[in-house]
Amino acid sequence: MSTTKKILISCLLIIVLIAIPLTGCPKPGIDKWGAIDILVGEIIPPADSDARISAFMPSEMLKKGDVVTSEDGTDYPIDKNTWFIFIDDDPQAFYAHATRYVFIDARNGSYDIVSESWPPLINNFSMWDTTNVGRGHLIEVWSVLGYPGPIAGSANTNPTADYGDAPDGQDAYYGVLGRYPTLFNTTNSQFGRPGGHTLNIGQETLGFNVSAEVDANDPNDPDGVPNLVDADSDERIYIITELSQARLAFTVAVSAGAPDMTRYANALIDFDQSGNWSSGAAGAEWVTVNLAVDVDPGTSDTIMTPLFAWGKATPPVWPVWMRLALTRAKIEESQFANVGGWDGSGQFEYGEIEDYCGFLTDNPPPPNGNGNGEPPPPNGNGNGGPPPPGPEKGPCGYDINYYVITISGGDLGKHIRQGVPIVQRSVDKVNQAAAAQGYISMGNLGPGNNSLSNLGQAFDDLAKAVKCGDYVLIYICGHGKKTGDGGIALKNSSGKTQEEMKPGDLAALLSKIKPCPDEDCETPEKCCHVSVIIESCYAGHFNTPGVTGPGRVVVGTSTDTPSRATPSGGVYTNGFAEAAGDPKADTTDPPDGVDPAEAGAAGEAAVAEHRDANKTGQKPWSSDNQWCDCKCPCSPGIDVEKWVWDEMGEEWVDEIEAWPGQLVTFRVDIESSGKCRDIVDLEMVDFLPDCLEYVGGAVLYAGGETYDRSPADISQGDGGLELSWNLLEIESLAPGESIAIEYEAIAEGLGENENIVYASAHCGYDYNVVVTDDDAASVLVTMPLSQDVLQISLEGYSRCYYVDEPDKECQYCTVTIKFHALDLTGGKLPITSLALNVNGEPFFSLEDISSEFFGDTMEMEAYCGQDIHVELMATNSLGLEAYLSKTGNTLEGEIE
To answer: Which fold has domain 638-781?
Structure first.
């Protein structure tokens, strides 16, 4: 073709192109993945920070007329197509805390970022209520960072390289051993390949930093600890999920002196949690295969993998162990085609290997925990059960009651729909601990009944129940406001705020429980010992007069910062509740239970440990302890209890049945039942009816010792004996202290025998005050039926002998008699005589015996065809008789 024609055609093409009407051209725009690319590429690049943040974006853009609203009421009207993203900068804390709202212009990708403190509402619905919001589903961005659990290292001479840190012989999941090829000489690889590692490092990196170690268990690792397990100082990457699909986003940096070439990324995820990487029923685990990575030398970029299926489980499975490899060489797919895909093994000349334990949650469980957000098993400390919250009795002997009110401000819609209701779990944990300790619940208020009016009613009910010497625990958990005077959001079951509890509101509630210094400890509707715990962000707003004050000690879990949480609840609350059930937390000598102050010390220690590990600023505060002392309602008292021992039930009771001649044991318990007053000069008179005979054996139990203590006087009174004890050796009995006397008697006469005891003592403070009490125990003496206490048995059979020839005539017979007699009372009513008669004549007899059992077998000769009549008679110590007879003929064999 000539040059002229070429020019002509070119001109015509230009003219045609210019002639196309511009109104028909599609407008440039940003789709959802373009918005995510802006987010992870420009706003929160993966390796730019080690903060465990998260982000959420509706899969459909917001339209003109939509409104985004913050919890504090700030509106952000949408006037054009906009991609909206919520970034949670501190997901391991209660709200309010640092968050960001990102608005991306869907036309050109420009964006605005607004600093906020709360999750958003979209058109007055929680962003996580996707059905009502009507803007598709949520695309979720989860940070992946390490939770180091280093093992003891082992020196070796393996190649110096960059190794991973996935478990190779250590636990991967609960009850599942990790068999990932991490160690150089691993036994968990295909084809005998070494654990995954790269020899030359630093020219291309996942993130910006890399170190070389002598195997994954190098004790001299430059990072300070061996890689295993999850301790290789991995830099942050993201898991980005959309329904059942996912992508990974990570930073790749190439040094200025490195060659300008394509690198390759490969990713493995253990979807079936089997402890190795191999595709199976849960789906393909080699999720990214030889992804080409082109980054100019001297620069870095965010790389996003193509979409892949996040396993096959519903809901999506986590945690999962992952391996990400950046290398210059591809991994040969054909080599692993028949073994479920690449297993993570191999030696690579250049690049970096990083392993991660990935969680699809804002708030991964802490290491070494049970990982399920539940409290530890009851009595898990091995000490036999939770201790009480304090002593049962006050210093002057009055009964102490322990009351609790728990208030849940409610969870955010975000946490509810993510299945991590950290507020409710905190409240549940305290409720469980308080119930185990023996607190009486006066209200467990949460979404649905946590209005200020309902709270006021609960405090009114508490005021009616409490006495001055009782103890009260008020536990409040909710999301707190940072601005203004602060306050705690009171939400409904959908996570929407209905009211706020401000410091003044709490002060008004607490004012219903008046302090009572120097008043009687049993004064109603007042209390000297109120403990208040506020688990909330910015709880320092409540450190104000009216909330603090006489009769109270108030603890806030944070001052002017967010309050931290784990999946199972607030960090402070976790420590508090665990200590409340652990007798080791009781620091009182002698031990008297774990009170809120002792449990609170464990809560503060848990916050300090979490603060140091996560570099947070949370610091609890506590008001001065302004508990007051009530005045003991002093008065002496005596309580006497009379008992008789029931041998069948093996217990002390107030009435038994006995037979004549039976030995019975009585017990008298005397307790000082007064309040803050000892009793002295105890006297006791026991009236024993004529039908009971005192036989002695009196024993005194006092002060943990046992003494022989016969009555000081025994005299005959009207209707029986009077047994008197003057217990001057008991110098005094303090409230709650007691003594006991036991003695024995024999039941004689039939009928009901009431044994009455009277006790008296003087007040140790005012001797003129005398206290008395009495009680009774009864012995019903009856004659038992013979068959209930005496058993006899009689058997007989005969055997005859014949002459064989010629007529087989009977020559003679023998009769065998087997008999016995048994005392069914076990020797209390022994057998005293026994007689055996045959055909009306005495055959065998015993007299003047005392036996629980007698039996024998005897023989006698008899005539052939002789009638035999056998009689057995036995008598016991009560004179009760038993009779049995048998009749037969010697030719019949058995005597029936």
So the answer is: Immunoglobulin-like (2.60.40)
